[in-house]
Specification:
about 280 residues, alpha/beta, Purple Acid Phosphatase, chain A, domain 2, seven-stranded mixed β-sheet, five-stranded mixed β-sheet, 9 helices, 15 strands, binds fe (ii) ion
């Protein structure tokens, strides 16, 4: 653990380790082991791998060579559910726990005067003003709706209305937690994006990647909102909130001039409240 008066945060979305490791590639090659040893909290913000129930154990075995897994927290992106069920959360939580990793789907982490509100978020498909058309387009072309099943509904394929419902639930949870009084700084960490600027204007699939949560952001003014999913470098300030993309992305994304930036370790000033361990609340 760092002894400096800062809390060192590393958020990694879209590691997609199954696209890197079989080729002997390291998506964290911009961070030295000395850098990573200084990290106090690492949040894996979705798309760690496809097929989480099969591949998360290998992902954690690889990560533990670079990071102390006792400092790592994880929640799912859309890809983690591939070849599995949208209702596999308990299985994912058990795999994380077996590796000493915190599972923080719709959970908050409190540490040293900071709180981190974590959830996948999904999207409301409303970004371009034609919600049902956007759901139709997403259902027609996105792998989310081919490669994920809903166990509780007879193992049928996942469908956009289901993920829109999940978005409503995650958004309501965030709104409620953001409204809870907290004496320190709040950082929101989601997989899907919270603002229209996070996607290209008019992109027909943009509504599957981002929702317009400007009202929520301006009302509750979290210090920072970190997201992924888009694999696209982006940083903007909305009201008092810094919004930043922490996608790592796949190897081929590094050749894309609009591709992701490599997420850096963020030094957050501590406020004199020194919780000895991460305190997680579901
Ligand atoms: Fe991704
Ligand atoms: Fe994603």
């Amino acid at each position: 653990m760092s002894t400096s008066p800062t809390l060192r945060l590393l958020v990694l979305a879209d590691l997609h380790l199954d696209r890197w490791l079989p080729h002997g590639l390291d998506p964290l090659d911009h961070l030295s082991n000395e850098d990573l040893a200084q990290v106090d909290i690492c949040i894996l913000a979705g798309d760690l791998t496809d097929k989480a129930t099969i591949r998360w154990p290998g992902a954690f075995d690889w990560l533990c060579r670079r990071l102390d897994l006792g400092r790592v927290h994880v929640f799912e992106g859309n890809h983690d559910y591939y070849a599995g069920r949208i209702d596999d959360g308990e299985r994912h939580a058990a795999i994380a726990a077996a590796h000493g990793v915190g599972y923080v789907q719709r959970s908050e982490i409190v540490r040293d005067g900071h709180r981190f509100l974590c959830c996948t978020l999904w999207s409301d498909f409303a970004l371009n003003g034609e919600r049902f058309g956007a759901m139709y387009d997403a259902g027609r072309v996105m792998n989310d709706y081919r490669r994920v099943r809903v166990g509780a509904e007879g193992y049928r394929k996942l469908y956009p209305e289901y993920t829109a419902r999940l978005h409503s639930e995650h958004r309501a949870w965030l709104a409620q937690r953001l409204a809870d009084p907290f004496g320190g700084e709040t950082t929101v960490v989601t997989h899907h994006a919270p603002h229209p600027s996070c996607v290209s204007p008019g992109d027909p699939l943009g509504p599957a990647y981002a929702s317009d949560l400007t009202h929520l952001i301006e009302e509750h003014r979290p210090a920072c909102w970190i997201y992924g999913h888009t694999h696209r470098a982006h940083r903007i300030t909305v009201g008092d909130t810094e919004i930043v993309c922490a996608s790592v992305g796949r190897p081929q994304d590094r050749d894309d001039p609009d591709g992701p930036a490599r997420p850096a370790i963020i030094d957050l000033p501590t406020t004199g409240r020194h919780d000895t361990e991460d305190d997680c609340h579901g």
